[in-house]
Amino acid sequence: MMKLKNFDPENFLRNYWQKKPLVIRQAFESFEQLIDPDELAGISCEEGSFSKIILEKNKKLEVMEGPFDPETYESTPESNWTLMVMEVDHWSETVAKLRDPFTFIPEWRMDDVSVSYAADSGTVGAHFDFYDVFIIQGIGRRRWQLESRARTLEECGPDHLVDGSDLKLVNDFHSSEEWILEEGDLLYIPPQWGHYGVSLGESISYSVGFRAPSIKEMVLSYVKSKLDLMSEDIFLEDPHRSFQGNSSEISALDSNCLVNWPEWLEKPSSNELNWFAELVTEPKRIQDLDEDSSDEEFSKEEIAHSVFVRNLDHRLAYFEENGEIRAYVDGKELSFARDLGDLIKVLFSKRELQGAEISKFLENEKALDLLQNLLGRGIFYRDSAD
User: Fold this and answer.
1) Residues 316 and 248: beta-carbon distance below 8 Å
2) Same domain, residue pair 281 and 202
3) Most buried one in 53, 116, 154, 198, CB count within 10 A?
4) Global pTM?
């Protein structure tokens, strides 16, 4: 069993875990090589394995997804490439030994032990992860540069990432500290902490990763567990509904109908109507909607002298928010110019529309585009008897 040497778990958890990086030289009582490059490459060729090859060309990183064919490695260059294989602890009992020194962290937090082989100057670029990771240096050496602090969520956002990469490569990396890891050394990196590793010659490193569920995942799981206990026979009730002029409007008063809302879940604000609009406009016959589309276009004159009928396979609704109209069609928000709110009210107000009712809006080209869009999608059609 592999053991950490001169390591105090309580001190680590108190002063370093999810707070700041830590380097431990010669971290293990007896460190042994757990896998060689050929064996790692073999795992990357197995069906069901998860692996990537990252090649640096012209200062840009190219990513190839595994599983690979053995012939792939016959054409790899002598430098500037890396093989990453995830979940190697599921394939190799010797690599799985690296789980043992970290049992002071709950098992449910453990993700996997990944292994990377890098040729000279191989790298996966400057990036960050959303999980805690212990990097253990195997054969060879790697230089690691780290930023001075963890990134904020905003700094982890798309404006700070290299376009077109799924590696979370950052475009604004600023090194603050640098270490060269040698065989048996350990580097702990907290979540969202930018880091950049480069192989100094041929090398292998092991990454023991600890993930946590996202808050979104936790909320979804909690809500699902509660929903599983709820009866499907409890419905919205609206015995005190008041008159409204446009039947397609969702009003803030509709939120008062949530009288049977479960006590364990916060009731939505009367200003939060988007989720409700998505729900009540969800179509019943999704499979037929594409058949309604049409390429036919109408001139302003044709529109003015036509009668248009709403296709009842499509469900429409709108509500007013901060003085603007938000419209929903078939469970999705409709995109339109904000100054067309009055036109939306007219279009959504009746099952049959006289062209004269909407022709006054068509001096605005954006209004004509909106109407052509709704006609083209088959949401409205011209009455053939007209």
Assistant:
1) yes
2) no
3) 116
4) 0.79
Is residue 1 in a domain?
no
In CATH, what number is assigned to the domain containing residue 29? 2.60.120.650
CA distances to 2, 131, 133 from 150, rounded to whole Å, are: 30, 12, 14
Radius of gyration, CA atoms only, the chain? 30
Say whether pLDDT at 322 is over 90.
no
Q: How confident is the model at residue 288 (pLDDT cuts 50, 70, 90)?
A: low
Q: Which domain holds residue 161?
A: 9-215
Residues 170 and 273 in one domain: no
Single residue among 215, 237, 272 that ends a domain in this structure:
215
The C-alpha atoms of residue 225 and residue 12 are separated, in whole angstroms, by 35
Tell me, yes or no, whether 17 and 139 share the same domain. yes
Give the per-residue pLDDT at 255. 66
Q: How far apart are the first and last CA of the chain?
A: 85
Same domain assignment for residues 353 and 378 = yes
Indicate if the pLDDT at residue 305 is higher than 90: no
CA 82, 86, 90, 95 torsion: positive or negative?
Answer: positive
Q: Which helix or strand (DSSP H or E) is residue 309 part of?
A: strand 307-310
Token pair of 11 as six digits: 């001190």
Cβ neighbourhood burial of 308 (10 Å; 0-12, 13-18, 19+): buried
Residue 15 CB: number of other CB atoms within 10 A? 11
Other CB atoms within 10 A of residue 14 CB: 10
Using alpha carbons only, what angle is made at residue 13 by residues 12 and 14, rounded to the nearest 5 degrees? Answer: 90
- Distances in whole angstroms, Cα of residue 173 to Cα of each of 1, 44, 126, 144, 263: 38, 30, 7, 13, 47
Q: Report how far residue 32's alpha carbon sits from residue 184's, in angstroms, rounded to the nearest whole number.
A: 8
- Which pLDDT tens digit goes with each residue over 70-108? 999 999 999 999 999 999 999 999 999 999 999 999 999
